[in-house]
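Render Transporter substrate-binding domain-containing protein in 3D.
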Amino acid sequence: MTGRLALATVTLALAAVLAGCAAPSDDVAHAPRTLLVPPPMPSGATIAPPAPSTAPEPSCGDPTASLRPLPADSAVPTPSVDRIRERGRLVVGLDTSSNLFSFRDPATGSIVGFDVEIAREVARDLFGDPDRIEYHLLTSADRVQSLVDRSVDIVVKTMTINCERRQTIAFSTVYFEAGQRVLALKGSGIRGIGDLGGRRVCAVAGTTNLHRVQALAPDATVLSVPGWADCLVVMQQRQVDAVTSDDAILAGLAAQDPNLELVGPRLSVEPYGIGVNQADTDLVRQVNATLDRIRGDGTWQRIHNRWLAPLGPAPAPPTPRYED
C-alpha cells in the first residue's frame, strides 16, 4: 500500500469514528426519563391534629362489669332478642382490615377471623345456625354511632371497653384482652414509645391508641387512617416510621410482612367487649350467655388456637365480671 493510499484509508476510518460519536439523534435526545413519583396515601389519611385538652375520662366503677345472663327458664321479656329472631338474621358490625380478627380469606373471599367466629357463636345460640349473619363493614370511628342508630345489632371489632364509651353504648363481658404496643421496621432503632419523638406514626381514627400515642409521644407526628390495613400500606411505603395499636392487631400486621416487629412493653390494657345498643339489655344478657358457654365448653380456646396462633398458645379466657 502506498503512503498516500494508507493516509486516505486512515482519514476515512477516523471520519467514521467521529461520525459515530456525533450528537444523538432527536429520538434518543427526547426519550422519556423515568421519574420516581411518591406513592399515594390511602384514602382518608390525614395528619391528626394535636390532642385537645379534655377533662379526665369519666368514672364508672369497673367498666368491664356487664349484665348477668338470664337463666334458661327466665320469664323476663326479651324484646330485642325477639326482634332479631323475627328478622331471621343477626346484623354484625366489623371490618375486613384486622388480620387474624376479621379479614377476607384470599382463597374464598369469605370474612373470617377470631371476631367473626365469636359473632358466629352468638348467631348459633340465637338461631341454632351460625351462618344467620349479615355483616356491615365499619371503620373504627363508626362503631359507636352504628349501635346508637341501630344500623347493626352488635359490634364485634376489637373494641376496647371503657367508661367514655359506656356513657353511650353497652358492652358484653370481656372476650379478649390485648395491650397497646409499637410496630417498627427491623433495624430501625425504634425500641418502644420513647423512640417516637420526631417520627411519623400511624394509628387508626376513632381508637384509644391514637390519643394515647399523642399523650405519650407528643413530639411524634401521627398519621390518622381509616383502617389497620392502611397502616400496613404506609409502613411498607416508608411513609411512616412506626404503627401503634393493640398487640393483637399488630401481630396480624407483622404476620403479613417479615420485615416488621413488635417492640417495647405494653402501654395499656385493652379489654375487648361486644358493643350493643344501651337500651337492649336483654341482648347484652343473651350475648353474655354465649360468652359464658364458649368459655366453659372449650370453644373459646379452639377459636383462639385457630386464628390467633401468632400470639402463642391459647391462655385461659378472660374471667367475666357482672354488675348484678
